[in-house]
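Renewal narrative, Specific Aim 1. Our central claim is that a sequence can be written position by position from structural information alone. The example that follows is taken directly from our test logs and has not been curated for this report. It begins with the structure tokens describing the chain, in the order in which they were read.
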């Protein structure tokens, strides 16, 4: 991984996690492993509003998830991964995009809003497989039917004072699409200062930044907001909530 700071603000390390792309013709638009800096291109998703009714950090972080089940059948052979782009952080799969006119888009159109699969959701099990994201991705790629357990992220607010490097490294598996920046490493700096002052709401590895002050959108937009901002930054973070015991079958 690269060291130092990207333009004095954040490190964008080599390599990305494996993505399952919803349509094979878009695979050429992904960043290839080994690039030394973050190189997002055009084609970012539009701004996605955060869920309404955000509560305090302590309540949201400690609350257990309530997974819901998605069941879908593949509509046609070219509908790779059921039309879903997924980001593998080696713990769970994050939904990056649901393609229009795909099997998953058809599923979403036929269920209530609270049962729809959305960008930013976490897939915690796939066809009764959990804890092994490579096997889970294989199911998405190779099966004609899919049953998965999904949970929404918990959101919490963080306020840091930026007067120099942020001291973070990020995973850049979903450069062009998505609704967040994924934190990989947190070194000495504003985030560790926040953690010391707010032990009930510590920022952790694999937390996502989904809002920078009033800016939401794709990774490039969030990165640019981080680079341009100075002084007090008000961030909204997303985290996979803890799962209640027994909610997901063991791998």
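The sequence written for that structure reads:
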């Amino acid at each position: 991984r690269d060291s130092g700071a990207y333009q004095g603000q954040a490190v964008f390390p080599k390599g990305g996690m494996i993505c399952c792309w919803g349509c094979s013709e878009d695979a050429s638009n992904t960043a290839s492993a080994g690039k030394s800096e973050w190189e997002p291109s055009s084609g970012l998703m539009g701004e996605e509003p955060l869920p309404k009714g955000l509560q305090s950090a302590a309540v949201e972080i400690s609350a257990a998830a309530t997974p819901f089940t998605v069941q879908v059948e593949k509509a046609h052979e070219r509908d790779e991964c059921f039309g879903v782009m997924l980001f593998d952080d080696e713990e769970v799969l994050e939904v990056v995009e649901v393609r229009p006119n795909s099997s998953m888009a058809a599923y979403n159109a036929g269920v209530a809003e609270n049962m729809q699969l959305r960008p930013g959701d976490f897939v915690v099990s796939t066809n009764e497989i959990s804890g092994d994201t490579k096997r889970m991705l294989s199911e998405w790629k190779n099966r004609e039917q899919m049953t998965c357990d999904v949970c929404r992220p918990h959101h919490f607010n963080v306020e840091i004072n930026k007067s120099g490097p942020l001291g973070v490294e990020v995973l850049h598996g979903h450069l062009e699409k998505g609704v967040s920046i994924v934190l990989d490493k947190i070194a000495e700096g504003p985030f560790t200062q926040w953690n010391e002052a707010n032990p009930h709401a510590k920022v952790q590895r694999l937390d996502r930044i989904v809002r920078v002050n009033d800016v939401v959108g794709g990774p490039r937009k969030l990165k640019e907001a981080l680079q341009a901002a100075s002084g007090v930054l008000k961030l909204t973070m997303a985290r996979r909530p803890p799962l209640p015991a027994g909610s997901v079958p063991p791998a």
